[in-house]
User: Which sequence fits this backbone?
């Protein structure tokens, strides 16, 4: 298996998979499923900020409920563009 250094390729590109799964679910109109993926501890908090405008447009209620349940988000970073 190809890789960078001693890590397999799939481990090096894990951030891509974690980024594209919420985006794919957003495109399918699956806000709840995208929020479930974003809530996982293995997913970077920065992705919640990245997808905030799209998810709030898709399903505002579920998105805000998800944000309120999370204790590691900074509300100042959840601005909508």
Assistant:
């Amino acid at each position: 298996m190809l890789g960078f250094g001693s890590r397999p390729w799939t481990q090096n590109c894990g951030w891509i998979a974690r980024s594209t799964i919420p985006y794919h679910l957003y495109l399918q109109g699956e806000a709840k499923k995208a929020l479930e993926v974003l809530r996982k501890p293995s997913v970077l908090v920065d992705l919640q900020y990245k997808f905030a405008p799209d998810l709030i447009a898709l399903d505002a209620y579920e998105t805000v409920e998800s944000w309120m349940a999370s204790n590691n988000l900074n509300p100042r970073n959840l601005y909508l563009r």
